[in-house]
Structures are given as C-alpha cells and as structure tokens.
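call fold(seq) -> tokens
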Amino acid sequence: MKPVTLLSLIVVFLAVSYYLSQMDPRTTKFTESDVVAVPEAQDQRQAEHRPEAAAESGGEKVVAVVGGGLAGMSAALEAHRTDPTLRILLIEKNSRLGGNSASASSGINGVGSAAQRKVQSKDTIDAFVDDTLRSGKGRCVPELVDRLVGDSADAIAFLYGYGLPLDVLSQLGGHSHARTHRIAPMPGKQTTNVGFTITSTLREHIEEIEQISVITDAKVTELIQGGENNGQVVGLRYEHTVTGEVHKLTVGSVVLTTGGYAADRAGFLSQYVPHFAKLCTTNGPFALGEGVRLAQAVGAGVVDMDQVQVHPTSFVHPDRPTSQKNFLAPEALRGSGGILLDNEGHRFVDELSTRDVVSAKIFEHCKPLKLENGKEGPTVARLLLNEEAVGLFIAEAFAFYTKMGLIQEFGSVEELAVSMQIPTATLLDTFGKYEAAASEGVCEFGKTTFPAHFHPRVDQKLYSMMITPALHYTMGGILIDTNARVLTSSKDVIPGLFAAGEVLAGSTAQTVSVATLCLSVWYSAELREGQQSLGLLLCPPHPDSEASAVLKGRPSTP
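ret:
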C-alpha cells in the first residue's frame, strides 16, 4: 500500500468538471510536430497504449494524469466513465503502473459501506470525522475532512464496481470503529495484499479502454503554462527514461497524482526533517516528490512539508538489519491482536494508537539492535502474535512474510524467552497482565480493543517479528481546494491543474495519522445536491441541457 493515506491513499475521484466544461476542443489536442512515438515497450501494456494513438484524436478533449498509482488509475477510470469521449494520458515514470499503492496491505477506510451495513455497524460519519480531526492535531482542513469522510463509502463502492469485494472489516490504529476494509480470499484466485489486488485489477480495466493511453518510463520534467492570462496549465514536457527523448504535449488539463517524497533523502527530507532522513523507508526509490516540485514551478503553494509520518512497524530482516528499504509490517498484524514488546519483554504502548504515538514510544522504550561488528543497528521492538491472532490475519500474507524470513515461529513461551535472552516468567507476567486488562476492558496504556487473548501459558505457539519505525507517508504537499484544483500560496486557483493522493497537503495528508496502512479514501468532486449523479458532477453538461437543469435544482424527469 504503501504510504497512502487520507492517504490515504487514495482511492481518488477527481474534479475534472472545470476542465471538461470550459475547455475549447480546438486547443486541446497534441502538438503534432512535437509528439514523437515512444519506442516499443518491453511489456505488452505500453505497446498497446502508445502516445501516437492519442495524437490521432484530432480536436477531442485531452487530459493528462501524471502518476500511475491508485490515485492516478482511479482518476483515469473515473474521468473516462464520466466522459467516454475524453482522451486520457496516464503518464508513469516507472516501467509499470502501481507505485507504492501496490504495496498497501491492510485495507481502505470508509464509513457507511455495504460491509458495515451488513454487520449493522454503529460507526457514523461524525465518529470518523472526530477520529480524523483528533489525529490531525489541529492541522486538518475541516472542509477536506468532511469530503473525505462523507464520500468514503462511494469510494469503496467504486472499487466494488470493478469486482473488488472489500467485505472484511478491521479496527486499526486511531479508529474508534472497525472501518478498514480489505478483500477476503476469493475462490480460485491467489490471495495477495489488498493494494496489489486493487492496482492490478484497475490496471487490467485500463488496458481494455482505448481512450486511455498509458505512457510508462516517462518522467514529466515541466508543466507548460499559457492561455489568456499565461497562467493556465496547457501542457507538459516529459523525458523517456530509456531513450532520453523529450516530448512536449499540449492538453486541456493536468492532474498530478505522483505520490509523496518519503524516499527523497537528499532533497525534501534533508531540507525539512533532517532528523528523519536517515531512517529506513517502506517506499520505493521512486518516491522523490517530483509532483510537488512541478507544481511549485508553476506557482503552487505547499504546506506542512515537515509533517512526515514514521510508521511504527517495518520488518527488520535478521540477515539484513541495516537495510534502508524495508517491507512494511502491516498495521493489520496489530489489528488482528498482535502486541508490541520492548527488549525486556514488557508492553509499553496501546498497539492500536496512532502511528506517531506508537513510533515515539518505540524510540522511548526500546534499544538499538546490537550488530555482530559491534555497531548499533536500528531501534527494534518485538511484534508478537499467537495462533488466535494469526487466525484473524490474512493467511496467505502471513505465509509470505514467513517465507521471506521475517517471522520466527516458537513452540513455547520458553523458546521465545531463550531467543530474547529474558526470563520465561517475564513473558508469562506480561501475558497475564494483558489478559486481565482485556477482561476489564482497558489496559494501563489506554487500549480498549483486544482482538486476541494472550493466556499466561507456557505451551503455546508464538510468532515473533523484529520491527523498527520507518519513513512511510509524507503529509505535506500541494495546496488544493475541495474540487481538487491546485492553489497558489495566496489561495488563487491555477487553471488547468488538479491534484490527488499523497502529493497533496491538508486533510488528505494529515488524516494519514489516523489511517491504517491503507489505501486512503478521498473523493474530490463537486458538492452533491439531492439525487444528482456523480457523472453530472465530474462532467457537467451543456448549460441548456436537461441534465443541467438537475444541477440547477429543478426537478428531474423520473
């Protein structure tokens, strides 16, 4: 999943209405003399989606989506759904779509979904909003939080419409209810992490749509401004990373969905959070913040660039303890009942608290790993599950982590104690206190949800993981309004430029503290009135049409 978060990232529906309603078809075509065919790709997908195919669109409307993670793919699909005549360029600098979204492993948050209704959940929009604002600690943009939460069920329904049954619910860190949705194992299909399943499925749908052209191995280097006031974004330049060729495209609008900067150690991280810059990261090496820089170059405002989320649990591989790129130990491991222990075998935190709190407690209570060369490695804690907790987690994912050497199995409490070089009695005492707290409904650290029991018994199987906090999600980024339009620092709209996903600042970023390791639910469309359809919002009709009458509040024909 990746760093996603409200984030979450995200399933994002984009407000392309301003672009679609105001664009002049005569000016929204590719610059014929500048478009050069990208050489044949190494994978079938790019060979089928060549930029010259879109260049043949003549005077048709064209929008460029920069970034091929979940936000970008969702934007492309939703834009196509609302206007099937629209030509969409999905531009990705890597060789395939997916980005960090493909690594997300715990689920996607939402309230009022079909899954919640099925179990008669008592969750409410107000509860989700309160959790988000509390987590944001005064930095949230209330209007964006309202949009995120109010439309989260629609985002899950959007994925459901593509054959992704997000029916399994969990209560994860920072949430007061079980609202994190993931996919149950599907008969006849190999179970993978939820992010990979979602991004793979959306990619398959994109491949079937002629109007969406995917350009991979393409790094956008510049946004081009023009128009009557010379401030509108009317095109872009990109460099093909394999051939070095530079291409210029003239389009009607650009949507930035390039993700964050949690791997940009020499750049934004060193500039804004130098104390975090040396931590390991869960992000791919491509998370360098280019979208933020592209937007800044055309006058976009940024905010909260020093707000970088450190996820408390990334796996420390016993054979590669100093690796700078770690697998995420998904929050669902704790949501399934896993507990955290310090080096002496004691609990020290509510495992389901927000990520910033859990990370801070690990650094406060745990010690650096002692390496064979005498040096110190990362600060590590133990994440411990028993068989009951494992049974609540995704079996295939747990098997994968075990195969990768990230999980150690112990046949008894005594075996684990020997491995940790602590008395068996210490672990039994820890389990006994935890079980007593579960019976009382609250532990000394404030935990009130106890998914699994830890009985103070020697003869039980235990599963242990070494974990360390890691750079995971960047909560600073580009300023936008509730229609996903990019703003200057003085809150003026930059015409023709939209943004979605982790590249954003504000609510979408700040709520990541409350998000699980999740694909965030964030929906930026125009405010809905009555029973108007999503399609009318994102693709407004001609002012004199019947559909326009609906938007203006006049009764619609049944």
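The chain is about 30% helix and 20% strand.
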